[in-house]
Amino acid sequence: MYNIKLETLKQLKDDLYDNNQRKYSNYFLTINTQQQPTDQLVELFEDALTVFFENFGVFVKTRKGFPKNDKRDIVILPVVEIGGKKHRLHCHATVEIEHQSNILLDYTKIRKFFKESLDGFKEIHFDAKVYKNSRNQDNIKSYILKTYKDGNYSFKTGNIKTIQK
Q: Number of structural domains, the chain?
């Protein structure tokens, strides 16, 4: 009835990913120290976040079989806060990646980075959720900025825009 060869499907995949078509991946990140802040923890956490966000492309990997050398534009909005109930130091961030391939975040590498960066402290909780549309993006950004608007605590470098290759 239908006779589609594997080579044909491969060609469709190649055409889709080799024609410079731009894609968008949007993530809502939570990085929680699971501890109440101390001066030492705040300084270590902010330093780790600065290195993490300025080198974010290192934590993005390409799925097998897809081009690895695409140009990626990454826009990050991070905010650090102290939680209202348990008073734990944590960061929320939106990460918007424009790319030409099929990508995913390397959770293992991210967790290892924070474990090494916050040596001597409890292991962090890391979570990333993918969101697809602008309505979700607006709701997430409003949530992230809730304590920033209240003047509680905000990440010292503000909005970070990077271009990753």
A: 1
